[in-house]
Amino acid sequence: MSRVINFSAGPAVLPEEVLRQAAEEMLDWHASGMCVMEMSHRGPEFIAIAERAEADLRELMGIPGEYRVLFLQGGATLQFAMVPLNLLAGKPAADYVDTGEWSKKAIKEAQKFCRVNVAASAADAKYTYMPEQAGWRLDPDAAYVHVCSNETIGGVELHWVPDTGEVPLVVDMSSHILSRPVDVTRYGLIYAGAQKNIGPAGLTIVIVRENLLGRAPKSAPSMLDYKVHADAQSMLNTPPTYAVYIAGLVFQWLKRQGGLAEMERRNVAKAKVLYDLLDASAFYRSPVRKTDRSRMNVPFTLPDPALDAAFLKGAAERGMVQLKGHRSVGGMRASLYNAMPLEGVQRLVDYMREFGAKRA
Ligand SMILES: *Cc1c(COP(=O)(O)O)cnc(C)c1O
Fold it and tell me: pTM for this structure?
């Protein structure tokens, strides 16, 4: 067996230790005689798995008691609709900061529910920076302020926490949740699809302040109402049991690594190796403003797009895959999530040096 170095933006690399543990437990989880996929979600075994996963996530992120943790489905994309449906509470508008492809999608969906005030936009520079809060024009009628704190495609990351006063701050953290410590109390609601930095696709995590629950209109479908899910302990219907189990194993793995402060230290070190090369190179280019560069998703370009295919081919021959950039940005993108080891980034940088030297 040989595993590749996987730079996918998502679904993405998982810790090998977690995959091995899942393989060992596949046929017989903790002497239950069952695979986790075969268990009733209402049985004691799965209830224990789900409770442990939530407790470990709470410990890792320091989630206070007045916040509820929901394990949902539908991806971050469903949150683009659930957020306005649940949080508008009769208000006519919501503020959105437009920082790239994912915030654009969130804005488009929210426009079905309310007047969207684009408080700031980085479209003027092809989404290569994070607009400073001093330039945001917030709407006094807005029910909440929405930001995507890591634009997976553009590689732009919010390295500070906006201050929205009494207005709840809602953040799409899909592609950098658990990559660094966060002060949850600064947010009204945090959401993230699991398949970037947590676990398998099919699970979406929502962390929501309790006083924001129960605001959905009466006509809202039960499956789209945060309060209904919170009251049902995320078991209104069958949850994505296997995805919850794997996410739980990832949380345990993160605790063994030393928690989110240690992950941040490693993620800073990994990103530095790649950005240092990009900055020193006349061959490669990073399109993103230095202060706003993502530690998780690093887009870069070669001097001529005609070289892209040869670059990707050489990378694949060296066991490095899923480096092709998103069509909207072009070039390459290396995603360096928690489960990507430093050696993987070093291998990439060694190859980039070699490739650049041959063609410069
Ligand atoms: C991947 C991604 C999404 C969409 O996630 P789905 O699970 O496919 O709905 C939304 N926002 C961000 C920031 C993402 O990276």
Answer: 0.98
